[in-house]
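@channel anyone free to eyeball this complex?
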Amino acid sequence: MASLRLLLAKPWIWSFIGALLVWLATVTFTGGYGGGGMITAALSLAVFTVVVGVGQMFVITLGPGNVDLSLPANIGLASAVAMKVMDGNDSMIAVGLLAAMACGMAIGAANYLLIWALRIPPIIATLSASFIIQSIDISYGRGLQIKPPPGFASFTNWQILGIPVLAILTVLFSIGAAIALQRMIYGRSVLAIGQNIRAAWLAGVNVGRIRFLTYTLSGALGGLDGALLAGYFRGANVDIGNEYLLASIAVVVIGGTSVAGGKANVPGVWGAALFLVLLLTMLNTFGVSAGVRLLLTGLIIVGVITAAGGQKALR
Amino acid sequence: MRPEMTAASVESGPKSSSERSALARARLLRGLLPAMSLVLVLLAIAWLNPRAISYFGFSLMLNLAIPIALATIAQMFVIAGNELDLSIGTFVGFVGCVTATWLKEAPLVGVLILLGSIGVYALLGALIHLRNLPSIVVTLGMSFVWQGLAILILPKPGGKAPDWLLSLMAFKPPFVPFPIIAALLIAAVVHFGLMRTSYGVILRGSGGNAAALSRAGWSLLKTKIVLFALTGLFGVLSGMALIGITTSADANIGNGYTLLSIAGVILGGGEFVGGRVSPIGAVIGALTLALAASPLLTFMHIPPDWQVAANGAILIIVLAARVLISRKER
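replying in thread with the prediction:
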């Protein structure tokens, strides 16, 4: 009983409860048919949201105003870079993945350069950068018809006993991210900056370096995500990352990370990502039209955020 | 150019007269920056294509400036209260769909829907304040809601603007093109309301120092509701103006306006925090973007692929110029 109460006090538990409720509602609707397949599909799709969500989580934890709006453009460009470098060749998979991540890191570093040099809010810096990245992608990826190497495509779809291998790897990655956040100097510094940037600076945290690393990390994860998406969906696309703007921010907030910064948790990102994917599956199963689906998705997101409530401002 | 009641003027303290005049010069330069960017874009257009600088040329080039300016003003109100509206683009699209369908076929219902949507904005303001929610996430969620509603109202592009709206937007005054007159009017009205009335000061103060305002007995709930309702109102005006120009609607017609409006406010000298905004600057910023977005780039023979990048580059250049000037201000 005590352990249950302890569990309910965790900020991330609600996103998992939400995901479970949505799954139960869908399975009830289908009369128990396809429940397992739904979990497999949800895990495969949630992976892409979790990877960028973790990057966005570190950025948002830096404090108010910190957010990476260049992720969709970043994902789009990296997907094209990965496909071009791999060129349908199995032996180039690792090189392609590295190239996509390097491309993302360069974008993240450029973002921080703008924030630092122009002293502008990250929102407008990453927004301006995303305009430019988008153009580069349109020009670079024009008419790109390269399919992913067969080995890479089957790797992104590989399942063991109905569990996608990519999801297992992403869980391992999330555990690593959680350790980095709570147990390593880097993560503690991010949290300290989010709680009070001046206090962190006075305490000897190298604020500039940590912020640079965080934006670069977010960029690198965006790049990795672009490559994985291109493998999963069999090709690069300028618009492949569009939905991850809302998704990456929403999973962070629904997962119980504070938008005011300084308080983060990784499990919530998983719970919220599963919740969003299952929600979409549920609405598709109910057979609603595109308009109703968008309407309900929006209302549910606003509803969940309202129910979760914001942090009381620290004054 | 605009009254300064921000931290900068308080912190500076006693200074020698020469320092003070240098400070005033830097501040003037900063205030003039939006106008200078507009003049620069106009000069570039005049140089590349002298024939564009005419009554007809401006009417064409500034065709979409009115809805962009109205959307930018809408965004400016939420930014004045330290919030951000990421749903204004899809909201403009939603209003456009209502305008091209209900407002023409059943004007009373149409008016009620539009008033109701302003009410929704007011409620959002209340919700964001009462539950202390991040406006970015709430409005991102709302952007789905507006888009969904727009698709439900108008599943396929079509509809038709009401006749009175068409004739209003096709108005051709003598000597000065209508978009310029409309822009001046919008800037003047909003400038008076927000910068010259006492409640305007309170509204901006809610972004500048909310704690001080609430201790002085002003309701922060009310200021947030008013700011969001004004955003809704100008969003409605923007959507209607847009449909008056394009004559028919499409659920995705306003999607680009979210980014354009934020960029316009920033180009116009607004800042994300501190209630530091400028209605005149915002309108100038919107005009600059409207001109820079396509006419200038077309005259410069920049391929369509790179037009988005050019927008980003213009933003970065203006912000860089502002940093250079602000450095003197310190």
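from a first look: Chain B touches chain A through 46 residues (CB under 8 Å).
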